[in-house]
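REQUEST ID: PR-0412
SUBMITTED BY: lab tech R.K.
PRIORITY: routine
TASK: structure prediction, single protein chain
INPUT:
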Amino acid sequence: MKVGIIANPRKHEARQAVGELRAALSRRGIDSVLETATADWLGESGGIPGREFSDLVDAVAVLGGDGTMLNAVACLGVFEKPVAGINLGTLGFLTSCTDNEVDLFAEALATGSFTTTRRTLLEAVVCQHGKPPESFFALNEVTLARGQTGRLVSLLATVDGELLNHYRADGLIVATPTGSTAYSLSAGGPLIAPTSGVFVITPICPHSLSQRSLVLSDDVEIGLSPENTDEGQLLFTVDGRDTVPIFADTRITVRKASRGFHLLRLEGRSFYEALRQKLKWHGG
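STATUS: complete
OUTPUT:
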């Protein structure tokens, strides 16, 4: 077995955690390889681009927080093998264990004591006049929102080509079930179990209180476009990572991607346990 390792160099615990993880894997006869940027940060040669991991490793360990996991989606590209997060951050909805549990994680890999869930990815295609279409993939959400302006923006949303609504708001979020615990939740959206076959559209600070979150089947195609916007007024953002300035003649199509993201969890760990811990649900 071979494990690819991606680490967030901005986490001060990451260097020690990488060393402990490699040692724990080695003790169990599991080889490891570093992603290129991680190897460069550690001052080592022989790093491998994340997009080449698919043919070389059996699983990937991502050391950081939820943001590092989201960056791993772009780093890995098409990758249909288990990805585990080792939490060095704060919230950690996407992570499998903490940096104090790397030995437990290595043992789980060696014995097969883990489960995987296929998480939905969003594919968003941005079509702007005079430019070739651009495709983006998101594990959590895509947003279309106001940029530097303090004004509300007007957004048109369609579902399978049918008008859904004309929104006046700070923006719109289209989230996966995985992303329902992130920006959408902060904007008042619902919590959704991660394997539910749905999307949620959540307006950001809408002008009308009647404009609420809407849960849709994930087999639909969602269209987003600005209405009457000034050049450069809006920003399209993918998982808080990629940002594209949006102009008045832009159309964005959001659909379920043909590929997924396979999240590894240790046996006995669940989404519902994570909700209780992360949201501090302790009963009445």
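NOTES: The chain has six helices and 17 strands.
REVIEWED BY: pending
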